[in-house]
Amino acid sequence: MRLPLPLLLTCLALAAAPCASRAQAAPPGTAAGAAPGSEQVIVPQVQRRELWVPKYPSNDFSLGLYGGSYSTQNFGSAGVAGLRLGYHVTEDLFFEASLGRSRVSDADFRQVLPGGIFPSGRETLSYADVVAGYNALPGEVFIGRGRAYATQGYVVLGLGSTKFASQTRQTFVGGFGLRLILGDHLALQADVRDHVYSLDLLGRRQSTQNPELSLGLTAFF
Length: 221
Prior knowledge:
Layout: H1 5-25, E1 61-72, E2 76-88, E3 93-105, H2 107-110, E4 122-142, E5 148-164, E6 167-181, E7 186-199, E8 206-220
Antiparallel strand pairs: 1-2, 1-8, 2-3, 3-4, 4-5, 5-6, 6-7, 7-8
């Protein structure tokens, strides 16, 4: 059965009316057919606060004074004093520079040789060296029942220069030591080091062994 053209147009208009009303009812910025409540209702306003990060001291550098005994081969022992500056690269590896000074006597030779070896009877010995050290034996020392201190046993090896009796000689330095940590910035340090260099004060050039025993106080900063 065919419908008249005016009636057909009326039916099509009535069918399209609900779709148009739904499209007009949708809120601005929302697609037609979207689920209600999908738009963001609350926009957060977060105010970030600045944090202050404390700077803890690294204590990588050390500065110390030491004194002890320096034994010069063929000339006996004498007092020694010096200064040490160190830099700790890691917890176990460190580098240390030392400046030391001693006064050596030829009193034993003056009993045999008239005039002795040195013009004035005593001669100044000074040295400067740089060593690399390794903390090989970490430990702890207990004093009494309620007090304990950390310790570090270490070995050192390096090069330097020794000036003695108007001669300047390259020096090999090696030894070991023990560090007693008294606090965050202070340590007590004991060292045994051997200074090996050549001398020709007694008529021929020979390699000499010159051990040093010292005790010092070191500050970390």
